[in-house]
Design goal:
Elements (H helix, E strand, L loop, with lengths): L1 H27 L3 E7 L2 E6 L1 H4 L6 E3 L2 E4 L10 H35 L2 H10 L5 H11 L12 H11 L2 H10 L1 E5 L2 E4 H22 L2
Parallel strand pairs: 2-4
Antiparallel strand pairs: 1-2, 3-4, 5-6
Amino acid sequence: MIAKAILFLVTAAWALTVSYPYVLLAMACGLAHKPAWQGTNLTAEWRPWFAKIWHYSTTIGRGIIFHPLSNRGKDTTLDTRIEFHEDTHVVQLECLMTLSLVLGGVVAAVTGDLVLGFWIHWSGGAWQLPNFLCAVLRHGPEPFNADEPRSWIARVMESAYRNSEHERSAYAQTDMIGHLMGKPVSWIVLHEMRRAAENKQHREWLAHAP
């Protein structure tokens, strides 16, 4: 509980000025509805007409807007995977803003400029933006598909989103890649199980080592 409170305080500057306003603005513009709180995350759902244009659940800091097909609120595999995926982005924000807090604090301590220190900390929420540019530089636009023709700009934007490292990380951690006892499991679950098995094996070796 204390750890969660600390992590919220670390991200509060971005949540209060960007994340929450993002969800509220989308609702005010008629793009989203069904607001709800999930802990300190403000969530909503894209309206069906907008979801036909934008096909993805989208997280900005602690503001999450789900795609209607996420079946949010129902006990389904799709819902669980998507919520874990979006929560991964919140965790990424917490890490970035912890780093920016340290950097801003050092700058403020050295220069005596508290305002500069604050803005350096606040900017941590945007430190993922270069990932989009790097994704396009590395991978180029998405390939042209004759069955679903899209403009060059649309294919560049798709590549920037799909191939950004923070997005690829979230997909890698949450996509279902196997089954265990009849239930789909993600890479991170299999990874933790393997680590647990390796730790057990190591403890047993230590217990019998000369």
